Automatic annotation (TrEMBL):
<keyword id="KW-0812">Transmembrane</keyword>
<dbReference type="Pfam" id="PF14849">
    <property type="entry name" value="YidC_periplas"/>
</dbReference>
<keyword id="KW-0813">Transport</keyword>
<dbReference type="InterPro" id="IPR047196">
    <property type="entry name" value="YidC_ALB_C"/>
</dbReference>
<dbReference type="InterPro" id="IPR028055">
    <property type="entry name" value="YidC/Oxa/ALB_C"/>
</dbReference>
<keyword id="KW-1133">Transmembrane helix</keyword>
<comment type="subunit">
    <text>Interacts with the Sec translocase complex via SecD. Specifically interacts with transmembrane segments of nascent integral membrane proteins during membrane integration.</text>
</comment>
<dbReference type="InterPro" id="IPR038221">
    <property type="entry name" value="YidC_periplasmic_sf"/>
</dbReference>
<feature type="transmembrane region" description="Helical">
    <location>
        <begin position="6"/>
        <end position="24"/>
    </location>
</feature>
<keyword id="KW-0653">Protein transport</keyword>
<feature type="transmembrane region" description="Helical">
    <location>
        <begin position="369"/>
        <end position="394"/>
    </location>
</feature>
<feature type="transmembrane region" description="Helical">
    <location>
        <begin position="445"/>
        <end position="466"/>
    </location>
</feature>
<dbReference type="GO" id="GO:0015031">
    <property type="term" value="P:protein transport"/>
</dbReference>
<feature type="region of interest" description="Disordered">
    <location>
        <begin position="597"/>
        <end position="624"/>
    </location>
</feature>
<feature type="transmembrane region" description="Helical">
    <location>
        <begin position="503"/>
        <end position="521"/>
    </location>
</feature>
<dbReference type="GO" id="GO:0051205">
    <property type="term" value="P:protein insertion into membrane"/>
</dbReference>
<feature type="domain" description="Membrane insertase YidC/Oxa/ALB C-terminal">
    <location>
        <begin position="380"/>
        <end position="578"/>
    </location>
</feature>
Length: 624
């Protein structure tokens, strides 16, 4: 037992010694590490003092050298065009000023001489981000896009017909040539673009020209939010004809079938690429330039959409080829686009979708009358007023028929009131007797609605017309600075849901005059009673209130038209009611009608049978 005790004590002492050793060793280790760190920090400071600072310019130069080497390598047999200095030249015609760049041998931007942007500068299409080129094989192992190569500009040629020819050329080491030839006509927004290739079988893969187009749509309108909503992709299929992609916050389109042309379209302008040989396939996209909501006051960016397109055109399988293309940089003017006879005029939205019929009303009726009036009246505000008066006069026979039906209902109102009092809560009995009264008097409560329904096509046509008519752009009237945009009298400085950031005065005048017109119509067309009577009395206030929010952000030309239309309608109503309609004569005609033998149509007979059956069931339920 003694030995075991001594053994335990020994192990305990050894344990204490080990613990003490490790504690002392750990402390010394930390002290050593701290001293070593101090030494290393000192050495680092000394080394830092002797190291030369990084030369940013040298780094940039090295990067440029590396980029130049990469470009030279990609340029292959066109190494002379791999590097250079971008140089521009400007060519003008009567309508536009075109800036060309030797980098890519392409159009850089277009300035439209007859149109100004929201900031009073000329409308610019294209710009610094505009690149339109195509891929060429520069060697057996490398491919380069012409947008990255520096072309040689040949002298501008002025042709006998007043057009001008601008040519940019690339020459390869193996005798291959690439040429971009542009023909600018004297009085035209369309530019002919001919791609001439010598050695095309080596320059193109699988006899296909792969076009790459990237650009930006710039803000042109004061009402930028509405301009964004009216911007979209448009294209023309070889088989199906015109189509478009109107995604509200951008668009992506895959062209699975051949197309004749595709366009980046905004509210009043477009950039379109056209090919005489069908574009066999491709993709295109429009993406909002900003992720934030576009508000008229807070949105200050110049660009509203960033656009890209990748298009494939089949080329002839010969050594020397010419691929004829065209570029349109110009306004969405119906008559300008129509002369090209390729359905581009459909980009002017005069009616589409559910109201596609409206475009025919516009093309065959509204637009000819508008242009005729504008031929001798210079102020477009007065043109709209005269157009309104003309349309109201043309539709006045329908208006008269509607008011004549209302006058009949007014004459019959005492008898209708007597029926209400007689039948009380018996709605079924009242309805049967009321229909009998209408039949005997030759009155139809719905006949007053039909003439108004026939005017809906004109209503919708004018809605489309004033939203897309570029002729109104930049022209003011009274307090409105631009009839193609809203007339702002108050800016709130913030976005209010449903209303926006402003208040339009013409929208207010429309809503007020619309309310008075509806109230007058209700007074002249007394309700026949029933469950809808209580609801109908609120309609004069409900509809103008709803349309107030709808129209507040729309072009004020539209609300000016509706305001004048309401005033003219009120005037026509007063004239018809006071000077044309004679209620005593109408009553005499009704009494004469009552004396005549009545013949019921099959529809009336069925209605009467249904009402009688419902009356019997109602009486049976009461007895039970």
């Amino acid at each position: 037992m003694k030995t075991d005790k001594n053994t335990v004590i020994g192990f305990a002492l050894l344990g204490i010694l080990f613990i003490a050793y490790f504690a002392i060793t750990n402390k010394e280790q930390k002290t050593f590490e701290a001293s070593q760190k101090h030494v290393q920090d000192s050495i680092a400071l000394i080394q830092k003092a002797h190291v030369k600072p990084i030369d940013a310019a040298a780094v940039k130069l090295d990067s440029l050298r590396a980029d130049s080497i990469a470009k030279t390598s990609a340029a292959g047999g066109f190494v002379a065009a791999a590097t250079g200095t971008a140089q521009t030249q400007v060519v003008e015609n009567d309508l536009m000023k075109i800036t060309f760049s030797n980098k890519g041998g392409q159009i850089q931007k277009i300035e439209l001489k007859q149109y100004k942007s929201f900031d009073s500068s000329l409308v610019i299409l294209g710009g610094a981000h505009n690149e339109l080129g195509y891929a060429i094989n520069t060697s057996n192992q490398s491919t380069q896009n012409t947008s990255n190569l520096y072309f040689t500009a040949l002298p501008v040629i002025k042709n006998a017909d007043g057009s001008q020819t601008v040519t940019y050329q690339l020459k390869g080491e193996n005798g291959q040539t690439v040429e971009n030839q542009f023909i600018i006509k004297k009085d035209d927004y369309m530019v002919d673009w001919n791609i001439n290739l010598n050695g095309a079988q080596q320059l193109l893969s699988q006899n296909t020209l792969n076009l790459q187009w990237s650009n930006s749509l710039h803000r042109q309108q004061y009402a930028v939010k509405y301009e964004k909503e009216q911007s979209y992709l448009a294209y023309n299929y070889v088989q199906k004809g015109y189509d478009d992609n109107r995604a509200a916050r951008g668009a992506n389109q895959n062209f699975e079938h051949p197309i004749h042309w595709m366009a980046f379209k905004q509210q009043f302008f477009n950039m379109t690429l056209l090919s005489k040989a069908p574009i066999k396939s491709g993709t295109a996209s429009m993406a909002l330039a900003s992720n934030k909501d576009i508000d008229d006051n807070s949105f200050t960016d110049k660009n509203i959409f960033n656009d890209t397109a990748s298009l494939q055109i089949e080329a002839p399988a010969t050594a020397a080829i010419s691929i004829p293309l065209q570029l349109y940089y110009g306004p969405n003017d119906y008559y300008v686009l129509k002369k090209y006879d390729n359905e581009m005029q459909n980009m002017v939205d005069l009616g589409s979708g559910i109201d596609a019929f409206a475009k025919y009303v516009n093309r065959w009726f509204i637009m000819p009358v508008f242009n005729f009036i504008a031929g001798f009246v210079s102020n477009f505000g007065w043109v709209i007023i005269l157009l309104t008066i003309f349309i109201r006069l043309v539709t006045s026979p329908l208006t008269y028929k509607s008011y004549y039906s209302s006058a009949k209902m007014k004459v019959l109102k005492p008898e209708i009131d007597a029926l209400k009092e007689k039948y009380g809560k018996d709605q079924q009995g009242f309805a049967m007797e009321q229909m009998k009264l209408f039949r005997e008097a030759g009155a139809n409560p719905l006949s007053g609605c039909m003439p108004m329904l026939l005017q809906i096509p004109i209503f919708l046509a004018l809605y489309r017309f004033f939203n897309s008519n570029i002729a109104l752009r930049g022209h003011g009237f009274l307090w409105a600075k631009d009839l193609s945009a809203y007339d702002s009298i108050i800016h709130f400085g913030t976005h209010i849901p449903l209303l926006g950031d402003h208040l339009s005065l013409f929208t207010i005048t429309y809503s007020v005059t619309s309310m008075f017109t509806s109230m007058y119509n209700m007074n002249m067309n007394p309700s026949a009673g029933g469950q809808n009577a209580a609801m109908m009395k609120y309609m004069p206030y409900f509809m103008p209130f709803i349309f107030f929010f709808v129209f507040n952000g729309l072009p004020c030309a539209l609300t000016l038209y509706y305001t004048v239309s309401n005033l003219v309608t009120l005037g026509i109503q007063l004239i018809i009611q006071k000077y044309i309609l004679d209620h005593s004569k109408i009553l005499a005609q009704i009494n004469e009608k009552r004396k005549q033998p009545k013949q019921q149509s099959k529809f009336q007979m069925r209605m009467q049978e249904m009402q009688e059956q419902q009356k019997k069931m109602q009486d049976l339920r009461k007895k039970k």
